[in-house]
Amino acid sequence: MPPAKVELQEVQPVPLEEAGEFVATLRSLRSTAIRPDVPGRIRRIDVSSGDRVKQGTPLMQIDPRRQQAAVSSQQAAIQAQRANVELARQERDRGKALLDGGIISQQDFDQLANTYSTAQAQLESLEAQLTEQRVNLQFFQVLAPTTGIVGDIPVRVGMYVTSDTDLTTIDGEGALEVYVQVPVEYATDLAVRLPLTIVDNAGKELAKTTVSYVAPRVDSQTQSILVKGRLPDSAALRSDQYVRARIVWRTTEGLAVPVLAVTRMGNQHFIYVAESQEGKTVARQRPIQVGEIVGDNFTVRSGLEPNEQIVVSGVQTLFDGAPIAAGS
For the whole model, what pTM was predicted? Predict the structure, then answer.
């Protein structure tokens, strides 16, 4: 039987990472909650979730008609009071002439002067109230307090809102923080500065950082520990995005073999090792104990030694003791 053409690979020690992978959420470090300064019903919403807005951009409007009516009423009251002030001024000036002519007493004049002063003070009070009402009218237009991205908008047109109602958020671009809920059984492994990698569902790396915070207490409801890490700017990541976070507990040196080089029978894994026999090279099937899958490789806990040659392709046609030759 001619030897089977196979590809051989020398087993060498490599750094092996012991890690855990968990669902995580991204949060903006520059998130601003938007709440109304005045109560009322939402009349108009000018933006959508995900819109990029600049500081001062109108976000939504609370129905201002009642406040507008109050401003108009106040303006009418001021006009009427100005007429009262003018009348009181004229009465005071006429009283001064009568006082100088000895027709009325000083007490009568003082009363006319006090009437004018009181009317003037009332006018100033009404004008101050109008200024305040005009300022309040501006609050019915909700503006973006900062530049950023509009978050979720839980309110709808027609809803009644108060100063405690969350209208939306503005998330500043750039700085993000990852929130990871790690099961309590990993508590002894957790530490600040552990490597933390953000990956997508396919395992592709999106960002790298380190653990910056480990909560001192366990969440009693979820039996998990909150872990945080600050992330560098990335166009691929956004606030409130769900991602997978990979935390590396420790890195050790060990052996790893390609997944495709390993065969399995029942609960036992095997690999073919190239050995010399009577001047020929044969494939010896050897049982091994495998650990975690890292990338495209199995970690090997036992059964192999460094520098041994293993078969990494064509294993489907081999059997124990089959003659082999390196080649493609």
Answer: 0.57
